[in-house]
Write a structure and sequence with these properties.
Blueprint (H helix, E strand, L loop, with lengths): L3 H38 L6 E6 L2 E8 L8 E7 L6 E5 L2 H8 L11 H6 E5 L2 H8 L2 H12 L4 E4 L3 E6 L12 H12 L14 H33 L7
Antiparallel strand pairs: 1-2, 2-3, 3-7, 4-5, 4-6, 6-7
Length: 240
């Protein structure tokens, strides 16, 4: 034991030093990336800026990590979408819930797009009609190819986010300008919502997910409680 304790302390110290070094490297990379963005956009060097690209005003902002939220980089432009439409990468858990029938989302008819992206909206008819456009789907793909992993279109603005914002290599040149062009294009030719036969997208899948987790967790608690209670009330004659 005398040899184990010092070794554990050394190991913990090494882990803490490495973690601090990784955070420092990531901090320096983010600073360099933000400096490059500031130079390209012509705004003051910092974590946020506003400007215009052509006739389109824009704002970009770096948001440091906080409780429950990873570091985020976002670019936004003014927009007037009739409702909120959120597009993110489809995760493995989304595949599982859809396979089990516990989740459903807007389907565009483009199998590759529907497989790669998860669509959440308060108005499924609008989401479907909007993303049935080849140009709109390609605009979403182009933003994600730039490194974004979250797109929100709402009645006030169009926002592309990199969340978490971890810089592992050089950012694409003219990132903000290219983002503004794509966001601006997504705000054109907005269609009328298509009928979805009463499908309640936002509340329906959330209730089913909550029910699925509640049933599974409740069953686990009941099982553990039953095992403990049975052991107390009916102890075995022989305990090994």
């Amino acid at each position: 034991m005398e040899l184990v304790s010092p070794l554990i302390l050394v190991l913990i110290a090494v882990i803490l030093v490495l973690a601090a070094a990784v955070r420092r490297v990531q901090h320096l990379r983010r600073r360099a990336a933000l400096h490059k963005i500031a130079e390209e956009t012509g705004v003051e060097d910092g974590e946020s800026g506003v400007g215009s690209h052509g006739t389109v005003p824009f704002a970009y902002r770096y948001i440091p990590a906080s409780t429950g939220r990873p570091p985020t980089f976002r670019v936004s432009i003014p927009a007037t979408f009739p409702t909120t439409l959120l597009v993110i990468r489809e995760a493995w858990i989304d595949h599982i819930f859809k396979a089990l029938g516990l989740d459903r989302e807007v389907q565009t008819g483009d199998r590759a797009f529907d497989r790669d992206f998860y669509i959440d909206t308060e108005n499924p008819g609008f989401g479907r009609g909007y993303l049935m456009s080849d140009r709109h789907r390609e605009g979403v793909r182009a933003l994600f190819r730039l490194g974004y992993n979250r797109l929100e279109l709402n009645p006030r603005e169009a926002v592309a986010e990199i969340r978490p914002f971890r810089v592992s290599g050089p950012l694409p040149d003219q990132l903000v300008q290219r983002s503004v062009e794509l966001l601006d294009a997504l705000g054109r030719d907005i269609p009328e919502p298509l009928p979805m036969h009463g499908m309640d997208q936002r509340s329906g899948w959330r209730r089913k997910r909550a029910a699925a987790f509640s049933i599974a967790f409740g069953s686990l608690l009941v099982g553990v409680a039953t095992l403990v209670l049975t052991d107390k009330l009916y102890p075995p004659l022989d305990r090994w």
